[in-house]
Fold this sequence. Notes:
The complex is a heterodimer of chains A (104) and B (164).
Chain A: E1 6-12, E2 15-21, E3 44-51, E4 54-61, E5 70-76, E6 83-90, E7 95-101
Antiparallel strand pairs in A: 1-2, 2-5, 3-4, 3-6, 6-7
Chain B: H1 2-33, H2 47-50, H3 55-61, E1 68-69, E2 73-76, E3 80-81, E4 87-93, E5 98-105, E6 112-117, E7 125-130, E8 136-144, E9 147-157
Amino acid sequence: MGNPMKIRAAVKDGVTEVKVLMQHDMETGLRKEADGTLVPAWFITEVKAQHQGRTVLEAQYGQSISKNPYLLFRFKGGAVGEKVTVSWTDNKGDTRTDEAAIAA
Amino acid sequence: MTNRTGREAINMERRKALKTGGGIGLMALFGALGLLQPGKAFAEWNKTAFSSKSMDEALAALGVTTPESSEAIKLTVPEIAENGAVVPVTVVSTIPDVEQISILVDKNPNVLAANFTFPQGTEGMVTTRVKMGQTANVVALVKADGKFYRVAREVKVTAGGCGG
């Protein structure tokens, strides 16, 4: 289990804007410790966002995505109080799922 | 411990393959390791694309040949990034029916940063943050209605993103 995500979803004029801040080290596998040993690659590979059970965005990440990845996207529809669920999987098989209610 | 030496051995192999065989050698190596899995489900993480070391390799792995340059895609990146570890990237497409947006950094060790898939009803826009090791071009690749479009912008990096 990774650390919790921060998710903000707000609907305006029939479009829901979702902002997600994931907490993850996103190690590239290229960085070296002070003693020269390579820090193994450890990063989020897949992200999926759902609204009321329907997938609204799917993403695949590589090592070039920054630490604690930020994501913003918009989908049509959504009503105040409905749930937006975001989940990620990293290259070590760890996963995390969080949800937020859509605000006005 | 055995695990670690095993992994190092693979890394060495990979490095050798890169040096000597170039693209073909790398593909063969991935094939041998069982990492190349053609015909896998669409949503599967595209190992080949994300391991690409050059723009051409990445485009080939994504199935793109010659993307059209398009004014209809707006790529927003800073002109100068003081911190290469966190470079905000926003892609907004005014082309309708966007199916996919990919973000690439041409001089990063792994060129492909992210690949977003848009179901119907999701707007053709996305904001993310990428790492940049050095001054390079950020490329946005948009797939809409089966066609590929591309737009590139240079970002000057004054401090590298790979040192952490």
